[in-house]
Write a structure and sequence with these properties.
CATH topology of the largest domain: Jelly Rolls
Structural class: alpha+beta
Shape: elongated
CATH architecture of the largest domain: Sandwich
CATH class of the largest domain: Mainly Beta
Number of strands: 13
Order of helices and strands: HEEEEEEEEEEEEEH
Helix content: 10-25%
Number of helices: 2
Radius of gyration: 25 Å
Strand content: over 45%
Largest sheet: 11 strands, antiparallel
Length: 230
């Protein structure tokens, strides 16, 4: 009886999925109103389509690059700058490999000192679906000339916490850099939880094993009953 209960419990877990916590995989990102590489001596890479919109700005779509390449850059020449020389109000949309419930966001401004742009964000809007909330950031990480180079956002307890999504939008950035809201991003990372669903083949194999165990247990019970009555 105990074995059958264990099998039933395992099947329930497998069919409902296993919750896994950890880094969110950003497969691609789109940006509206970003500086073109080379602005102010800052540079970046992007594999998708870059469409100039005038004023030294462009829209980025369908690709990946500096913001999700897994590297916190160490020079401005390899780091994405925004709102230079004027406020372009960029909108960044991050696309994920799966559906996640998000816990936190980290915007790394660049792992280098002597520049006032890394870690200078103090506020931004985060949107999931039709829900938008304004967050204040917390400085942490490498110490740059303006303070800590990374800007951290805790989503727990917010209106976005618990929402399941495969996409996130960042907008309405506020920085303390003059009147242009200038800031830099070398990497964006997210932490969240997702449901891992086993492959159909694994479920089938496990189900067959469970049926065999159940049948074996039933046979043993019949033998025990016959033995007791004889």
């Amino acid at each position: 009886m105990r074995k059958i209960q264990i099998v039933i419990a395992c099947l329930a877990v497998m069919f409902t999925g296993i919750v896994s916590a950890g880094p969110v995989i950003i497969t691609s990102y789109d940006i509206e109103g970003a500086n073109i590489s080379g602005a102010g001596g800052w540079g970046h890479t992007y594999t998708g389509t870059i469409t100039p919109i005038g004023g030294g700005f462009a829209n980025y779509s369908g690709g990946s690059g500096t913001l999700n390449n897994g590297t916190v850059e160490t020079t401005p020449q390899t780091t994405h700058i925004f709102n230079y020389p004027s406020d372009s109000s960029p909108v960044i949309t991050l696309n994920f490999d799966d559906f996640y419930s998000l816990n936190s966001l980290l915007i790394s401004g660049g792992d280098f000192s002597g520049n006032s742009l890394p870690g200078i964000l103090f506020e931004l809007d985060i949107t999931i679906g039709s829900t938008t909330e304004t967050f204040s950031t917390i400085g942490q990480g490498f110490s740059a000339s303006s303070g800590f180079a990374d800007d951290f956002v805790d989503l727990t307890g917010s209106s976005l916490n618990g929402l399941v999504t495969n996409q996130l939008t960042l907008s309405n950035f506020k920085s303390s850099y003059l009147d242009t809201n200038g800031f830099s991003i070398a990497e964006i990372t997210l932490d969240g939880t997702t449901e891992v669903t086993p492959e159909p083949t694994s479920l089938a194999i496990f189900g067959i094993g469970a049926l065999c165990m159940g049948a074996g247990a039933a046979r043993r019970r019949r033998k025990e009953k016959l033995a007791a009555n004889s």
